[in-house]
Inverse folding.
């Protein structure tokens, strides 16, 4: 039993022994400007930390300043450049007490900087350095359980091995080392070593000592990142590293790597940037520590919104530097791996088993089908198998020359796995292993964020799809089509909407609008505005009243968002329309002769801005063949184009298309459209009614013989239309009942409307009461009323009620000659 315990203890200490050996190897080498960084990277390799940094005392002795860091950007965890020694930060506490500080999520929540840290299980370790260094080592991890006992031992070994040599810098009067430079931040004068001049293809006699001379020889696209280093306002205390390209008179640009540190000035001395520049084009990614690639990956993952974006960023950061032949990234969904990216994508580049079993570009397979992979996922650490290792065929053929499996975990959950394979035997160096480990941690966290983002995006997208019309209604004398394109930038749905609302008397309302912002709140408010406009329109209000009511409703919702809207009420019988704009783009009309007009429609303010706002109405003329186009600013406005120019271009595109096929017109107008914002497009082609209805109206006065006057008006009108006597008698009975109900049960004006179209007669009586007449369920012999509605129902092919401007309209339809 004692032997078993001894063997277990030895196994647990294997990691700390390997870390001690690696650190001894590093510290025994001659001191270089990047040794501190290489030491810190061992904390990432052996403890699974996502970030490690060294803080040392500044010149004044009252601050702990960031000296060097490795891993993801410190800003992801809210860490600062400097901490006051007299403050209550964990770094200051470890420095004052000389004892390590180990903090979990609960303790970190009580720290002053907790609001700067991300949500989730984050663990912080602060280990003091020796008295000579007078600083501390800071490490952060998101691994489940934080730093265990062996991780803590490894961090203490790293802290013991830390040395902080100043960057290569010449003493006063001495010559700079060949690969070093010293830049005075106040004058821009720079001293450079001979090796740097050689990399820039400059002779000593050709260099004037100005930093602008060197910057002029770099590739223009790399200047912004270089300027962020050489401008003092953008440079913080601590070391920076970046790669840039320098132009060459013959051949492609040369990659150079700059490492520098800003030294603060004082006592008449200017602040200086000192460091080294080396040739990066000759460095093998697997033979040197390439923290720059990890930082680039972190930057790419910070902007990756979807799972596929994350996968492509990982493939782009790993395959070429590692000289891998193939790489696959797969999500873990329940017990199955769902592959999101295969690189290269050609099926013949992958094992035959993959092609036979998975068959598609996005294959999936149960984890249990690959026990070796399942074991790696359970352990949660990067696994490397050299050439010749006995693996199951599904894995062995991915990397016959070597296979690396990176479990992608974050927050205690396994998000997926990354498989990297080589065809020829591959030697895995220590720096390459560090790159794989750091990349796995970054990719796992990004994948979890992308999962949450995709779920939210799908939820909001489904919300918007349900709030927009599923299909447009069939219109009398017109055809309408609509298109909606979500933005491809930002990946959040917006508040663009459209609607087509059939109204009584062959009127149709065409609505398009845009709620401010791109979020679930914007999509929700869009649904509310669309519903409100439809409800106000159905009540029979004129267009300006409809928009005014919507404005008042939006103000009462007490939201910070506003909305724009264009509302067009078209009379399909008369070929006329009224337009109301609330901060929205005007309609565009394509006339039958092919000419195009941007309607000069006077507009009001956006909805939800002013409580007392006017929304004037502008008349529009519709001739058969006229196309009415309504759109949102996403189609006509971009950072490169003014909105007026965009509207003119939109009008020109509308003039150039054939309006016979309205769907093709919509597709043509959207061709080549930018997708930085949502786009909604609504088109209507007015064809005119084949048969125009016959209409007459009568205002019923409240006099004793009002019903007799209404009957006489109806008889005279129907006879002039050629209606037979039998149908006239039935219509007179309906008119008598409806007019009587309007006079007896309501106050105010009563109006009688009669319409005849295609042998179908419609009688409608409007009054000022919103109460709908109720059909009685049963009538006794003694009842003196209630039979009128039953009589109307018996005489009608259909009947019902509609809200009209605060009142109602009771209507009845009958088929003539039935």
């Amino acid at each position: 039993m004692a032997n078993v315990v001894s063997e277990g203890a030895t196994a647990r200490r294997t990691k700390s022994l390997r870390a001690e050996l690696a650190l001894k190897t590093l510290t025994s080498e001659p001191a270089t400007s990047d040794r501190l960084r290489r030491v810190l990277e061992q904390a990432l390799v052996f403890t699974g930390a996502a970030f490690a940094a060294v803080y040392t005392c500044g010149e004044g002795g009252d601050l702990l300043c960031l000296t060097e860091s490795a891993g993801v950007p410190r800003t992801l965890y809210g860490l600062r450049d400097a901490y006051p020694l007299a403050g209550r930060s964990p770094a200051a506490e470890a420095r004052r007490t000389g004892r390590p500080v180990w903090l979990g999520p609960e303790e970190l929540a009580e720290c002053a900087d907790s609001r700067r840290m991300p949500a989730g299980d984050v663990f912080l370790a602060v280990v003091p350095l020796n008295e000579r260094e007078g600083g501390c080592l800071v490490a952060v991890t998101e691994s489940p359980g934080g730093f265990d006992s062996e991780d803590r031992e490894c961090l203490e070994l790293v802290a013991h091995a830390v040395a902080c040599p100043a960057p290569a810098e010449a003493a006063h009067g001495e010559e700079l080392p060949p690969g070093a430079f010293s830049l005075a931040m106040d004058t821009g004068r720079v001293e450079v070593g001979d090796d740097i001049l050689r990399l820039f293809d400059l002779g000593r006699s050709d260099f004037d000592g100005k930093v602008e001379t060197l910057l002029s020889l770099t590739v223009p696209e790399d200047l912004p990142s270089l300027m962020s280093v050489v401008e003092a306002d953008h440079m913080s205390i601590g070391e920076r590293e970046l790669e840039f390209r320098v132009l060459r008179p013959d051949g492609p640009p040369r990659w150079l790597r700059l490492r520098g540190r800003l030294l603060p000035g004082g006592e008449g001395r200017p602040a200086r940037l000192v460091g080294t520049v080396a040739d990066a084009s000759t460095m093998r990614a697997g033979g040197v520590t390439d923290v720059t690639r990890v930082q680039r990956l972190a930057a790419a993952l910070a902007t990756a919104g979807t799972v596929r974006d994350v996968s492509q960023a990982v493939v782009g950061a790993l395959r070429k530097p590692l000289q891998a032949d193939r790489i696959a990234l797969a999500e873990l969904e329940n017990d199955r791996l769902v592959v999101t990216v295969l690189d290269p994508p050609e099926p013949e580049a992958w094992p035959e088993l993959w092609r036979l079993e998975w068959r598609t570009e996005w294959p999936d397979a149960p984890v249990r089908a690959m026990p070796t992979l399942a074991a790696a996922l359970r352990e949660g650490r990067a696994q490397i198998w050299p050439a010749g290792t006995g693996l199951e065929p599904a894995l062995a053929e991915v990397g016959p020359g070597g296979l690396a499996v990176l479990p992608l975990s974050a927050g205690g959950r396994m998000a997926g796995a990354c498989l990297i394979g080589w065809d020829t035997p591959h030697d895995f160096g220590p720096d390459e292993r560090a790159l794989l480990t750091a990349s796995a941690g970054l990719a796992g966290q990004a994948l979890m964020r992308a999962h949450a983002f995709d779920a939210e995006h799908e939820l909001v997208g489904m919300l918007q799809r349900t709030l927009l019309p599923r299909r447009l209604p069939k219109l009398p004398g017109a055809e309408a089509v609509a298109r909606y394109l979500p933005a491809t930038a930002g990946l959040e749905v917006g508040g663009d909407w459209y609607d087509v609302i059939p109204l009584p008397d062959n009127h149709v309302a065409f609505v398009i609008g845009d709620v401010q912002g791109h979020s679930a709140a914007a999509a929700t408010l869009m649904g509310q505005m669309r519903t409100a406009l439809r409800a106000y329109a159905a009540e029979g209000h004129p267009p300006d009243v409809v928009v005014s009511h919507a404005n008042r409703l939006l103000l009462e919702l007490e939201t910070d968002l506003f909305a724009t809207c264009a509302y067009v009420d078209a009379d399909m019988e008369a070929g006329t329309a009224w337009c109301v704009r609330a901060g929205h783009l005007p309609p565009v009309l394509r006339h039958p002769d092919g000419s195009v007009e941007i309607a000069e429609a006077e507009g009001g303010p956006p909805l939800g801005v002013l409580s007392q706002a006017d929304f004037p109405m502008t008349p529009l003329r519709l001739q058969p063949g006229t196309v009415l186009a309504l759109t949102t600013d996403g189609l006509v406005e971009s950072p490169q184009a003014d909105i007026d120019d965009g509207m003119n271009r939109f009008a020109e595109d509308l003039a150039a298309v054939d309006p016979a096929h309205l769907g093709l017109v919509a597709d043509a107008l959207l061709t080549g459209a930018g997708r930085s914002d949502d786009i909604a497009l609504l088109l209507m082609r007015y064809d005119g009614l084949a048969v125009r209805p016959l209409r007459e109206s009568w205002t019923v006065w409240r006099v004793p013989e009002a019903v007799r006057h209404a009957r006489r008006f109806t008889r005279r009108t129907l006879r002039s239309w050629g209606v037979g006597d039998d149908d006239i008698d039935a219509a007179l009975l309906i008119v008598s009942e409806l007019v009587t109900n309007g006079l007896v049960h309501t106050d105010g004006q009563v109006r009688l409307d009669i319409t005849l179209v295609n042998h179908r007669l419609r009688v409608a009586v409007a009054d000022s009461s919103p109460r709908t007449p109720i059909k009685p369920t049963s009538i006794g012999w003694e009842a003196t009323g209630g039979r009128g509605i039953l009589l109307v129902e018996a005489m009608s092919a259909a009947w019902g009620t509609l809200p009209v401007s605060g009142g109602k309209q009771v209507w009845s339809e009958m088929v003539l000659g039935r």
In short: The mean pLDDT is 79. The chain has 23 helices and 33 strands. The longest helix spans residues 430-467.
